[in-house]
Amino acid sequence: MEEPLVYFTVGHPAEAKYVEKMSRFLAFVVPVRRADEAREMVKRYQNEYHDARHVCWAYMLGPERKEWQLNDNGEPSGTAGKPILGQINSRELTDVLVIVVRYFGGIKLGTSGLIAAYRQAASDALDEAGRVECVRKRELTVTFSYAAADGVMKIVKRSDVELLDKKFDNLCSLRMLAPMSIADELKGRLGALDGVTVDDSGESV
Predict the structure, then answer these.
(1) 19, 107 in Cβ contact below 8 A?
(2) Cα–Cα distance, 101 to 89 (Å, whole number)
(3) Where in the chain is the domain with CATH 3.30.70.2690?
(4) ∠ CA 29-137-152 to the nearest 5 degrees?
C-alpha cells in the first residue's frame, strides 16, 4: 500500500458539552503523536474528573491511521469508545485523542441513547477543533565538499524544503525535511552532483 503524501489532524485542542436526559457529557480533543502520550493524557483527565461515572476515550495515530485504541470505561461494550472513534474516522483524522467524560444524571439512556450521546459529544468537540492538512515529509542528510556548496544550495533553496541543520567546513552537511512528493527527485538531483552523497534514513514524519 502506497504511503499517503498528506494526512489530516486537528487544528488545536478543543472541548464541548452535551446534555441528554440530565447526563452531562464533557468532550475534549487533545492533539497527540504517540500512544504513551495519549495514555498519559487519559490518566490526567481521569484524575481531574475522578468524580465522574465514566471517562471514555479513543485515539488514532500515524499518517497511515493504523494505530488506534478505544475504551468504554464501564459503559456497555461498543456504546462509548466506538462512536467516539467513529467520529475521528468520519473526518479521516489522525494524531488525535478524544475523551468524553460522563456525569450520570439518574436516567438511563439505553444502548442506542448512549451511542448517540457519545457520538454527538465527540462530534461537537471535533467541530470546534477544526481540521488541518499536513504534508508528509522525509528526512535527508546531504554531505558534500565546500566546492559543491553552490550547486547543492541552488537545489535545496525551495520553500517546501525545511532545513533542520547545516554545517559548512571542509566537509559540509545539510539535514532537511523534504515533502514525500519530491523527496526522490531531490535525492536524485543532489546525488548527481560531483562530491555529494545523500543519506536517506527512510524515516518519514
Answers:
(1) no
(2) 20
(3) 137-204
(4) 150
Is the model's pLDDT at 195 over the cut of 80?
Answer: yes
Mean pLDDT over residues 185-204, rounded?
A: 83
pLDDT attached to residue 204: 62
Print burial letters for 29-53: b (CB count within 10 Å at least 16), e (below 16). bbbbeeeebbbebbeebeeebeebe
Cα separation, 68 vs 57, in Å, equals 11
- Adjacent-strand bridge partners of 156: none
137-204: CATH topology is Alpha-Beta Plaits (3.30.70)
Superfamily of domain 6-134: Impact, N-terminal domain (3.30.230.30)
Q: What is the pLDDT of residues 54-76, one digit of tens each?
A: 999 999 998 889 999 999 999 99
| Mean confidence (pLDDT) of the chain | 91
Among 38-42, 95-99, 166-170, the least confident range = 166-170
CB 14 within 8 A of CB 29: yes
Backbone angles phi, psi at 89, to 5 degrees: -70, -35
Handedness of CA 174, 176, 182, 187 (dihedral sign): positive
Residue-wise pLDDT tens digits, 86-102: 999 999 999 999 999 99
